[in-house]
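Hi all, long-time lurker, first post. I run a small reading group and we've been trying to get comfortable going from sequence to structure in the token notation. Rather than ask abstract questions, I figured I'd post a concrete chain and ask someone more experienced to write out its structure so we can walk through it together at our next meeting. Sequence below, copied exactly:
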Amino acid sequence: MARQQTSVAERGPWVLALDLGTSSFRSALYDRLGNPLTDSPPGQIPCIWHTTADGGMEVEPESLFAHVVQVVDAAVFRARRDGLEIAAVATAAFWHSLMGVGGDGGAITPLFGWGDTRATDAAAWLRREMDEEAVHRRTGCFLDPSYPTAKLLWLREARPDIFSRVSTWMSFAEYLALRLFGEPRASISMASGTGLLDIGSMQWDGEVLAALGVSGAMLPPLADSDAPLRGLHTGFDTRWPELAGIPWFPALGDGACANLGSGAVGPGRLGLTVGTTAALRTLVRAERPPVVPGLWCYRLDRHRFVAGRALSNGGNAAAALNGWLRLPPADERDALVAAMEPDGHGLTVLPYLIGERGPGDPPGAGGGVLGLTQNTTAMQILRAWLEAGAFAIGEIAAAVETGFGPPRQILAGGGALHGSPAWLQIIADVLGSPVHLSAIRETSARGAALLALERLGLVDDAFEVPSPAGLETLPDMDRHTRYRAARDRQRMLEQQLLPVMARGVQPRHIPRFD
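-- Answer (accepted) --
Happy to help. Here is the structure in token form:
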């Protein structure tokens, strides 16, 4: 037993990686080659968000901070038990959150998540008043209610008493730094997902801030991923003495980290993630931001960009169906889906339980199923819904191909795909391309750890660290042809129904703040 622990310790020094996702927080330990200590992360805690009938999605920041403390505790306990030297802490965090903090460092607002659509009117006003294409070219972001851009304008109008008390606006990643180190430093990676950053100059965008009536002094100071924080606040330095003096690297966007962690890096290699939500991304080196119409573009660091598009509806929709339809257990359910004919159910699905966030998507449109009969089964509805989700991924793949050329390889990950070979096969058939299921389960945590290892000088280039190959799912081209016709049918239905189904009032006037 002692020899085994010594062997594990010799793989160090280790990086403690935090994966702060929308649905759960995790911690994991990675050795100097980017390999995890175990397949099961030491700590994982689900995150519970409060949703409201008017489109709200929020949570108390202090509850999330308590989750971080718990998952760090779990990792530190494991490191102490096995005699592991931790050289640095790395963090991958969800993009697009927003909260207000007062001058004393205390939270004044809840944390608003990307799925909060109450800023829909504000986003519509911004699209009317600003040159949306120019804003997209500079910031890489859309004028959409999922971004802090629109949320700030909404809060200024809807909650002026609260807005006036805020000293600094930040994401949860910066709030974490504030609580642990007393400094809410924002990485350019996290800032690039706000819609407030000029991703070319890596400075807060003056034109956008002027339209919102927000000054740069109300936003956190910026730093690249090679500018770590050190010196934990009193209390945490005694709780985790082995972490008190080591570098804590600034949090990075979890989507970019997922590509890096799975090996989906460089031209032609796409990273597909389907967990609670879904996204398809390319991560490349570039001297200038590769902003493509119809795709967002964020930074991983000073020299690397991630471009793609996200879907608000992924595994969350499948989970909702499971609750509504009382479907059989997961393995049985997946086998039944796999045995069904493609597009053999006579259904057309609009898979939008949560408002989508792409250009032209009406937020909060709602989902729908057309073609139901008295003979329709629950499994047919599930199969049709999974196919519709795959069609949405196919639309993103087409946009990425237009901007970056045809893919050489698609690397997939996320709990929804690891748990459903049938859905993975449907996606491969819709795309008409092989899809490799990543052998790495915690891709975001691993990506953050790899960049930390690069910053520590333990690896030369995080892009060059090999990633374990996963199983390949080959497409059935006959099914691909059938799905093309089904997607055309769905697209026609969307064009007719989505404008009618979109909830909410017409955009009202929102004054400009000079």
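A couple of things your group might point at:
The chain is about 40% helix and 20% strand.
The chain has two domains: 2-253, 315-435+473-501.
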